[in-house]
């Protein structure tokens, strides 16, 4: 973990103040996965793309290959898989981007209320051991805040990734990682190295033999 954060600060020294909250977020996410939970992600526009990006880094190998353990490989063989079968799979961490549920989202936007499109999914999918990661450059995205409120009601932890001020999302989050910018594109530029560092630290925690 220290090596990843040191590299982050070398490249982006202005993110130094964000490190304590990144560590809190990291600890919460590890606790979530250790308890069998999953990460739910939501955001709008560029932040929606970030949700997809993060889910992709967690569901498959990011900086490591994540070779499957021998017991799992043997189990595949019991069901007739050949010896190369497991080589086409990688260790995975459960992460669900709520922005790509096209059929559900368009139906809900049309039939109910667009401000609750993420909240409804959190209500249906979220469990107490899960975490909601809400990304909002302003911290004031209404649909992300509504999702966070539902997550809190379900006793989930909420992590926010925002700009300098944190916005209203900060109030309903357990941890808010605030980056030192206010303009949308600048905030997004900082969000990428922050969540890449988090993904790398999480991956290296679970696949230590590949360090």
Describe the structure.
It is a single chain. The chain has one domain: Glucose-6-phosphate isomerase like protein, domain 1 (Rossmann fold, 3-Layer(aba) Sandwich), CATH 3.40.50. 49% of the residues lie in helices and 11% in strands. The chain is built from 8 helices and 5 strands, in the order ααβααβααβαββα. A 5-stranded parallel β-sheet has the order 2-1-3-4-5, sandwiched between helices.
Structural class: alpha/beta
Give the rounded overall mean pLDDT: 96
Widest sheet: strand order? Answer: 2-1-3-4-5
Count every beta strand, where a strand is a DSSP E run of 2 or more residues. Answer: 5
**Cα separation of the termini:** 11 Å
So how many helices?
8
Unreliable spans are none
Which tags fit this structure?
five-stranded parallel sheet, alpha/beta, 11% strand
Give the helices and strands, then pairings.
Layout: H1 2-11, H2 19-34, E1 39-43, H3 46-59, H4 70-78, E2 95-97, H5 102-111, H6 117-125, E3 131-135, H7 142-153, E4 157-162, E5 175-178, H8 184-206
Helix pairs in contact: 2-8, 3-8, 6-7
Quick take:
The chain is of the alpha/beta class. The chain contains 8 helices and 5 strands; from the N terminus they run ααβααβααβαββα. The longest helix is centred in the last third of the chain and has 23 residues, at 184-206.
């Amino acid at each position: 973990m220290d090596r990843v954060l040191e590299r982050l600060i070398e490249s982006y020294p202005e993110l130094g103040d964000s490190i304590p909250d990144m560590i809190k977020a990291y600890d919460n996410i590890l606790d979530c996965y250790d308890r069998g939970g999953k990460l739910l992600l939501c955001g709008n526009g560029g932040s929606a793309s970030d949700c997809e990006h993060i889910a992709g880094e967690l569901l498959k190998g990011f900086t490591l290959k994540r070779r499957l353990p021998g017991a799992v490989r043997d189990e595949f063989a019991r069901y007739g898989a050949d010896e190369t079968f497991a080589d086409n799979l990688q260790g995975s961490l459960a992460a669900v981007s709520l922005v790509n549920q096209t059929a559900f989202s368009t139906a809900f936007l049309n039939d109910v209320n667009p401000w609750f499109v993420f909240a409804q999914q959190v209500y249906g999918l979220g469990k107490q051991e899960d975490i909601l990661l809400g990304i909002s450059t302003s911290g004031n995205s209404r649909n992300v805040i509504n999702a966070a409120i539902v997550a809190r009601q379900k006793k989930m932890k909420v992590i926010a990734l925002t700009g300098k001020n944190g916005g209203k999302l900060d109030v309903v989050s357990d941890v808010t990682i605030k980056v030192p910018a206010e303009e949308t594109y600048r905030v997004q530029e900082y969000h990428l190295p922050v969540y890449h560092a988090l993904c790398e630290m999480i991956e290296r925690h679970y696949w230590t033999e590949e360090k």
